[in-house]
Every structure is written in C-alpha cells, then in structure tokens.
Amino acid sequence: MTDQRQRHPRPDRALARAVEASKAPAISRAAAVLRLLGKSDAPLGLQSIARDLGLVPSTCLHVLRALVAEEFVSIDPDTKRYSLEAGVLTLARHWLRRNRFTDLAQPVLDRIGQSFDVTVLGVHIVGLDHLIVVAVSQSGQNFQLSTQVGSRFPALISATGRCIAAFGDHSEAELEARFRTLRWDEPPTFDDWRVQVSQTRVQGFAVDAGNYISGVTVVAAPVWKTPGKLSHALVAIGIGSALKRRGLPALQDALVPAARTLSNQLCGE
Amino acid sequence: MTDQRQRHPRPDRALARAVEASKAPAISRAAAVLRLLGKSDAPLGLQSIARDLGLVPSTCLHVLRALVAEEFVSIDPDTKRYSLEAGVLTLARHWLRRNRFTDLAQPVLDRIGQSFDVTVLGVHIVGLDHLIVVAVSQSGQNFQLSTQVGSRFPALISATGRCIAAFGDHSEAELEARFRTLRWDEPPTFDDWRVQVSQTRVQGFAVDAGNYISGVTVVAAPVWKTPGKLSHALVAIGIGSALKRRGLPALQDALVPAARTLSNQLCGE
DNA sequence: GACCGCCATTCGATATATGAAATAGCGTTC
DNA sequence: GAACGCTATTTCATATATCGAATGGCGGTC
Q: What's the pLDDT score for residue B139?
C-alpha cells in the first residue's frame, strides 16, 4: 500500500546525487538516515545504516550523533542500535497546526465518508513525484482500505494521478516517463490513460475503476490553494461493487462540490 | 561575531553550542530551522530565519535548499518564504507505526478517559529536559484541557515531573537546578516538592493538585519499557473540583494498574 | 582462555562546506 | 523614473567536515 522502494541491493544512488549537488550534504545524509530508520521495522546498527546508504561509517556516526542530539533519533545505549525518536512527532504537529487544508477538509471528509461508507482522504500534492496523505476519514466498515496520515504515493497513480495529469501543467513527455514507472494491479495503456485524463479535464474529477487496486474504485477531485497551481485533492476510496450499487454518481456529486468549496475557502484568504 | 550578538539580542545560543560541539553542524542548523519554522505562525523569509538563529544568510540558504530538496520545507516561489512541508508527516507516521507504547496505550487511555471524563495522555520521557505527548484521549466534555500528540513539556513539571524525579535516577543537584527553571501557576517550594516526590516513590504515582495549572488536577503513573529506565507515563488531567466530587481515588485506582499492565506488556516484549 | 570476526569509535590529512563581502533583483519612495 | 532600502543570491578564500585507515571493545567459537 505504501510506496516502499525496495532498493537494498545497492547503496542509494539518489542519495549520492543529492549529496553531490547540495552544498549541505550532511542534511541530505541525515534525511536519508531518517527515512531509512523510518522504513526499517527494527532498530539498526551503525554499520548496517552506513552500508545501506553507501556512507562511510565515521561520517554516518557523526550524522547519527547529531540526529540523536536533536532528538530525531534515539540510540539504545546497550545495543548501539538506532531508531526514530518522538521528536519527529513535534514537527508533524507543528505542520498540522498551521495547515488550513487539513482543518477545513476534515469535517468534509467525515461527512462524505459516513454518507457513502467509503474511506476519504485529503492529499497534498508535492510534485510529479508523489503525494502525501494529510487527512483521513475511515468509514467504520472498510478496514480493508486502510491508509494513514503521512503515507506517500506516486503522484500519477490512480484517480488522483489523472487529476494531476489533467490540471497540473506538465509536459506530455514528462508525464509519459513517469507513467511508465507506475505499478498498477490492472495497468491501463498509456493511450487509454490519456483519454481518461482528457475526460478528467472536462468533467472536473477523475475515476479509477479497479486499475490501481482490483475491485476498488477511487474517485478524486482537485483542490487549489492558489489559482493555477494544483496543490491538493479529495479522494474517495470504496469497494467497486458496493459503489456500483449505492451510486457512484451520487458520490461524485458530493465530492466535486466539496472540493470546489474547499478551493474557494483556501484561495479566498 | 560579538557585534552580531549585540545587534540581535537572542540569536539561539543553544544552537551555537550544538554547532560547536557537533561534527555535523549542518544538521543542527537544519533542525533549528525546522523548529523555527514549526514555531512560526507564518512562512518566513531567508533573512528572518538567519537573523533569528544567528546564521549567516548564505549558509542558511544552503540549509534551506537542502531541506527543500528533502521535502521537509517548502518554498513559495513567488514570495521566497519558507514553511514546513508535509514530508515531516511521513516521518511521524513511521515513528507511530513501529511504536508499541502508543498502540498498547491508546485503548487504555480511551477507557479511562471515558470512565472518568478526563483527558488522558500517554507521554514519552525524553530525558530530564522534556517529555513528548505521544497519545491522547480527549474526553468529550473537556474542551478546555486540550493537548495534541507531539506537544512538548518540561520534564519536571506537574505530576509527571514528580514521577520522573521519583523513579528516574537523577542527582539531587541536577533536579534542583531544573526545578528552579520551571514555571507553575502556583509553584510549590522545592522542599514541598521533594516531599511530594518521596511520597510518589512510595505510593507509585503522583498527583499535582493545581500547582501546574490552577484548578486543574493531574495524576501521573510511571511506565517502564525496560526495567530500571523510566521511559513513559500515563497522565490523567481533569478539573480539580469535578475530580474531587467524582472520586480522585477511583481514578488513581484505574490509572496505576493500567500503567503497571503496560509496563509488563512492554518489558515482556 | 585465547583467538577471531564484527562492530563502534578515534585520528589525522585533505577535499569541501562555510562565512564575509560583493552582486543582483524587486518593491517603495521621492 | 531614478534612487533607495531591502531582499535573495553568488563568489571565493579558508576554517573544517569528511574520509579511510587504525584502534579499541565485545561476543562468539574452538
């Protein structure tokens, strides 16, 4: 469900590039360490971290010590194993505190989720690379469709992806390159997908009928924080068969105006 | 260097020390930037950040660019103002996902919160410096006593502080030094406090009857993840008068065994 | 009980991140 | 419309963070 790139075999090449380019490489390394610790199920030792990221152990140690000092990482003094520390929660709280989208979206998500018995997400579109779930309303019944705040997904996947392709202004070439990297349960062809994107542009919302996950229908409606630059979306996720019975059109008719209202509220101020 | 200090009354001195000591100063700077952006209500410009933290603008720019590249910070391309980005949420989610304390504590908090109509927190004790709220159960009624996951408090404040003083093994001198820096609504004398700490050690839990916040009673019970090293606590917060009526003893009798059970679950693995 | 292997950690030379000053952009004022 | 004050940004010498090798420590094995 999450995007977990399994890139263990070889030391992180993306990190190498980031370090090369940046004038503060220690920060890229620190970020890589945090993400690695985040992905890992168990605390990790210095060597293991250094190996995975292709870092020199001594440098890695410096990074870890700095992160420990800043309370983003904790070290077990006995085993010398490192893991994420609660300090990261504090940052997240601050982000949530000053984020109008989450505040405004939450009641809307809850209302739609309850009415249609679907899981509804508010997502933040970071770029063409991926999006982040920033608000969730889990309907009581559907425990199968579980997602958490903070989850990352490839930007162009599923219904949201069609919205991003339709309303963000990205070059066709770039879109296709990205599209080729996606993994779907039942992948559409690029041509099919382009047609669906065009349709999305016309009708103002997107539907993914089982492409991303078989049997699961996803509806996404775009939200703008500033006119012209697509930044968020509302996403409803439900079992395809259930939605067919209980009215996909009605769900669309709830989601789209909600997204529009949110856009107005966000732009207005 | 010196005249910089004079011009800007409070360029973060703690940061200066951290940078001095660390072998990865960029990371300390990055953390300081993240925290500053977290605290700030509005996006900040480069100069403003550099001034507040006592950083050279060019260095600060490098830090910010690295943080933007890592998606912990976003920049508004028009105004060149920086703010926290949703990437910090992803780290927080990973922390929460692999944290057994929050998982185990949440249902317990909810049960106690509902039974006694109090706000109940699970806190993670980072050290003598502070603790972090990692789980919350907000009872329906008490909107006054609002706290969020990720909030930080001084470690020795209120009832939790008495637990930490009682069960963490810290030197008397250190405790007193820290104690002197605390701010209470109705501060106890150090001697009073020491007596209360002794009492806490004996009875296995602590009560703060309006010292921290006037009229608010706080009960805290210690939780150990590893024997000997106090790491967490359960904290119940309620209006003093209401608790008096509805049985503070009963609340204690619920909280303390719950904390003990949690300790066993966490230690047992 | 001494060896071995693996790990975290220290140490010193060197590539490089940093900081002061210079430059470039941008909105405001006169 | 030019000049000002403010901002972000680039430049480039130098203090310093980084790297690789050497050290120290711990647990397991024979």
A: 77
